[in-house]
Every structure is written in C-alpha cells, then in structure tokens.
Amino acid sequence: MEFKISDKMRNMKPSIIREILKQMSDPTLISFAGGNPAADSFPAEDIARFSDELLRQDPVAALQYSVSEGVPSVREAVRAFANRRERVAKENDGVLITSGSQQILDFAAKCLCNEGDVVAVENPAFLGAFNAFRSSGARLAGVPMEDDGVNLAALEAVFAAPEKPRFFYCIPNFQNPTGKTMSLAKRRAVYALAVRYGVPVLEDDPYGELRIAGGPVPSIKSMDTEGAVIYAGSFSKILCPGMRLAYCVCDKKLMAAFVVAKQCSDVHTNVWAQRVCEAMLTRTDMDAHIREIRKIYAAKAALMMEQLDEKCPQVRYTRPEGGMFIWGTLPEGADMPAFVRECLARKLALVPGNAFMVDEEAPCGSFRMNFSTPTPENIVKGVSVMAGVLAAQGL
Amino acid sequence: MEFKISDKMRNMKPSIIREILKQMSDPTLISFAGGNPAADSFPAEDIARFSDELLRQDPVAALQYSVSEGVPSVREAVRAFANRRERVAKENDGVLITSGSQQILDFAAKCLCNEGDVVAVENPAFLGAFNAFRSSGARLAGVPMEDDGVNLAALEAVFAAPEKPRFFYCIPNFQNPTGKTMSLAKRRAVYALAVRYGVPVLEDDPYGELRIAGGPVPSIKSMDTEGAVIYAGSFSKILCPGMRLAYCVCDKKLMAAFVVAKQCSDVHTNVWAQRVCEAMLTRTDMDAHIREIRKIYAAKAALMMEQLDEKCPQVRYTRPEGGMFIWGTLPEGADMPAFVRECLARKLALVPGNAFMVDEEAPCGSFRMNFSTPTPENIVKGVSVMAGVLAAQGL
C-alpha cells in the first residue's frame, strides 16, 4: 500500500547528525559529533540501590499506571529542586514530569501552534527543537546569535512582524551548538520584549547545572512575574539520559493544555524513572554529585581547548562556561563542508554548523565539537586529525 | 500572559473518565471505572531481579542515550515474541519500541493526517485513541459496532466517502469498551476493504494475550500481504503499565515516518524498561506467565458475570472472551446518566457509555464495567450497589 504521509512529516529532512551517527558503528572512528553525557558521570550505584529498594519493597508503586502530570511526590521533589537556588516555579506555575525535555518542545508546538504558524528560534540552535516544531507544522523564524545571546533588534523585528510568532525558543545557558551563554542584560531584555509583544518564551535549560567557569546567571523564568515563560529542565545530564526524565514549569493555564497533550501522547512518564529520581533528589546530596560532574566536564573542556590552541590556532572557537559543546569557526573563505568531510574520511566525526541553522543551505563556516563523550586520549587524537586536515587543505 | 491555545488542543474536552477518576481518592469508593491491570499479575520479582542484574553489571546499557527505533536486541526479541504463534511482523515490516501504545496512536495521526483529515473509528471505542487523533486535528467518522465487530456496510460507506479516511482504527480483541471480539470473517472483510479502498488499518491489540474463553482468532496484521496494517502491541497488560512499553509493527516505508516522529517526540523509549523487557522475553517463560494472568482475569470476569446474572438480570451485557471490560446495557428507555450518577452517589464508579462515543451527546443506554482492578469482594459489593440503584429507579 502507498502511504500518504502528512504534509508536516513529509517535509521533515533526515537529520544530518543522525546520518553521521549511523557511521559510528566503526569502532576506529573518533566522535566529536555526539551529544552524550559522559557515562562516568552517571550515579549508577545510587540508581541501582534505589531501584532495587523500590522494586523489592513497593513494586506496584513503580509498575502500575499513574497520573499524567507525574507522581505527586515526585512533582513536589522536582519543584523543590528547581527552586533550591532561585525561584523557577512560582505559585501560579504547575510542574509536569515528561519523557525527556524533547517532549516539552513537542508539547509547546502542539499546544501553541496551528499548522503554518511561526515560531521564533535562536539561529543556530538545537536541531531536535527545530524538528519538534516543524513536526507540528510550524515555520521557523531564526534570530541570529551573538556572543552574549540573540541579537535583540532582530528578535524585536520578528516579534513585531505581521505574523507574530507563537513563542520564542532559546537555550540561555551554554547553548547547543554554540556553547554561548546569554548575558543577564539580554535575559532581562528578552523577557521585557516577550511581555511587551505577548510572545511566550520557551527557555530550554538542559545544561544549566553543568557550569564549569564564571558565575551563575539567573534564569529568564526566575524573572517571570507575568507567566510568560515556559521552563524546560532535564535530568538527562545530571542523572542519565536513558531514563528519559525531564520537567516543565509553566503557568497553570497553559499547563492544563500540556497535561492533555501528555495524556494523548504517552499517558504518563515511566514511573520507575520518576521514583528513582525522587529518591536521588530527596536522599542524596545532588549538589555534591553535580560538583563531581562539573569536574569531569571542566577537565575535558580544558583539554580540548588547550589542544585547539596548540594545534589549530587558525580555528576560532567559543570558550564555553559549561555544557558539552565548543563551536569552531574556520578562517574566512574556508570550505567547511569539505573540512568536515575530510575529517570524517580520517575517522573524526564533527557536525557541520549548517545542521543547526534554520536554513541548512545557507553558507556556514562553523562546526560543532562535543567534549563530554570522547575520552581524553581521543580528544587529543581528534584535534590532531583536525590539524592534519587544516594543513592538507592549506588553511 | 494570555495563551492562545492551538485550535486542535483548544477543542479537546476533558475526559469524562479522568473527571470520574479524580474522585477516586475517596478510599470507600468502589471502582469499576478504571482500566488498570490487576497488580497481582505483575511479574514483580522477575522485574526486580533482571533490573538489579542490569544496573549492577552493565549500568551504561540501561542509562545512556539509545537509538530512536529501540535497542536493536530488544527489537529482535519483540519481533520473535510477536511472531511466536502467527506472522505479525513480516519481511517488509519494521518494529518500533514506543513509550506505551498510546504513542503509536499519536504517531499514526501525526504521520498520516493533516489538520481536518478524517479518521474512521469503531464506535464506541477507546477514548484515548479518539483524543490522540483529535490532538492532531483529525475529525472522527464513527462506524457502529455489532456483536462480531464493526458494521461492514457502514465501514464501506465511510471508506467510499468523498473525504476518504486516512486510516481505520479498531481493537479486534476484547474491545475497549464493549469487550467484543471481531469475528474471523469480519477481519478478512475489513482487510479486503482496506486494500480495495487504500485505507490503512490501525489494529490496536493491547488485550490480545488476555484471552479467557474461546479460541484465538488471527490478527488482521497476520493476513497482511500488502503492508496495509499498522499493528500496535503492548506490554502494559502482560508485564506492567508503569514501564510504558509497547511496540509498533508496520511497513518499513511508513515506519520511516514513525521513527522521525519518535525522534521529535521523546527521542527514544526508556532504556531500562526496554532491557528489562528483553530479559523477560528471552529468559522467562512468558507463555506460562500469561497463563497465570489469564487465570486471574478469568476468575474475576466469571465472578462479575455471575453476580450480574444473579442480582441485575435486567442488565444485558457482553460476555467477553478476554480483556478487562464488560459492557452493560440498561432496559430500553432507562436514564443511563441518572443510573451512573446514583451509583457514584452510593460509592460505585462506572463509566457512562457515551464517554466512548464519537458524539458524546448522543443518547446512550450503556455503561462500562472493569473487572481487572477491583478485588473479588468489591466486585460482589459493587454489583449489589447496581442492583440497589436499579430497584430504586424502578428498572
């Protein structure tokens, strides 16, 4: 039978990253292309201990159906965790436990966009967000990134356009792919524009806990007195991603629609994961655990930057204050796709920067490097491969 | 801030069942309204054992990111399980591991429907399916149920209508809510109509393993030589629902779109659940386990039917050959909503039949009873409440 795929799904292109990752079964390949957290950061022993206790003492509490919003005691623990340093979840906000933060991006588009509506996005930004929005039939309006976050004039122009965007998507901390952090001044300005134009902000914060340099910057959600910000927090980088566990904090009026979307999408999030997370949050010192993760990431980031400085001085790159990514830019006029292709031929995977652009066809001289997944040895080897290709291409 | 909810989500009504279940915190209430599997059917000890082994011996295999299709070895184990008695997954079919079968219903609408497109559905049928389809902006064309499945003339009329449905949704085994099973002749006829009119069949089979009477009837998917059937299988009723684990079997061409939808929706299914399920399928005697579940369900169904025969002879009901539900119908002219309301006032929850109808406002004299969740004692008490209300209402 011939299937007639819906317009919104037929127009989705296969992800460049997925195509690259398909070649990853080659064990001799070094990957700077992934986005996996470092496996040695997983609190595997605690998870095993709490899981075992739960499944022996109260299996039905992990195995039976639950409510779409998330297990009530888990929601309480998550709210306390989110609010432990700043006020993310306010009185009028609900907390929804989701199957990873990808699901929050999916719900935002589903609940706020009719097919053809516009969503404003940082450009470049996380490809999985673009695809989630497109899969609801949304069109993307990219707002260029500067070193301290989006270009505000361009953002205001998009907000003021006749087709007002349904929301604005941004990753203020250690952005994927650029590693850039939005300044406090820009966060305040973005919030003010959002309120002035009535455009909600979807603040995606999967990396916020992974700060390795500089001081914390308040989240946009913490400034939110108008219920204008949808906050997406994740446990993928501070516990583990295989659990698929994240949380959304937003105004209860919008949350009601998200809960219906959750019911329609997968009924509720895996209960075992919720309960194990609750035990981690309430019975371990999460901040001590997060400090250990930061040490791992800080060492890997420092090594990659040191190697780049030493071997690839012609590559400009962002020095990230956290997260998992470094954004490299080749000298003016260089052929970035040819550089990435040749690196792959020499067994080093990088992601071409245009994979993260709203318009993948536009010229782009940048590429993304991940430092959380490769071993220190492979970080050294991989940067040497880059240096060899730069030399071979006369860059 | 005022949120402008998308048309498709704004028009979703809160589920009647959810509203009823909200009253369930009252511990004196007896519920025939839920759809939970019996907790004593969960293989809790095996799950605890395999989980512990996995998390101690190879935690990264449970905790790291994985591929959207599902862990390859899990997909292989699921394919073998699905094909152990009949050929569900054929050469041209892919297997996708999903976060519960609700997600398959969501993907079918997302991948096959533009907003406003028509989906044909058994009427009445599973409310969660209706809501999943509506949340993609689909409109529903209900096809009346008869004792042996849908009315074929009505189905053909819907297939032949100018707005051809994008697919046809049915639950051939022990349907929710009616408990009815589609006959072999009707399955063949439905398949033939699907091929003739080019309308894919979405065969939802969450209860198929829970047969308590009669002999097995081949799935529609097993007849599928044209790649016209999308099969949804679930582990919620034979392992446990809290894991959120199900699988979709369909033609690889359509599966490619489903995999993109999966990537956009929640990236991949919880890996712990996938690995534990794999161990259950490959290292335990699942058929022996399923025989034990059937015994529990057969005893509960028999008790409820015996009680209905004895105390409520004026209620006609379907004698299900499996599943979890009995569909009761009041004498002609009775006021079903008043009956359900009065039962609730006397602390027995039933679901009014119109909750499962495409048009919830249409008159309906039926209601749904669940026998898997209540204890035997509560089955006896609950049917006595019904008898008291029937007497009080002069029925």
From TrEMBL, chains A, B:
Keyword Nucleotide-binding: no
Chain ranges passing through the membrane: none
UniProt-listed Pfam families: Aminotran_1_2
CDD domains: AAT_like
Biological processes, Gene Ontology terms: alpha-amino acid metabolic process
GO molecular function per UniProt: pyridoxal phosphate binding; transaminase activity
Cofactor section: pyridoxal 5'-phosphate
The UniProt record lists the keyword Secreted: no
Keywords: Aminotransferase, Pyridoxal phosphate, Transferase
Domain of life: Bacteria
Record's signal peptide: none
Sequence ranges assigned to domain Aminotransferase class I/classII large in this UniProt record: 43-381
Similarity field: Belongs to the class-I pyridoxal-phosphate-dependent aminotransferase family.
Self-association and partners: Homodimer.
Name assigned to this protein: Aminotransferase class I/II-fold pyridoxal phosphate-dependent enzyme
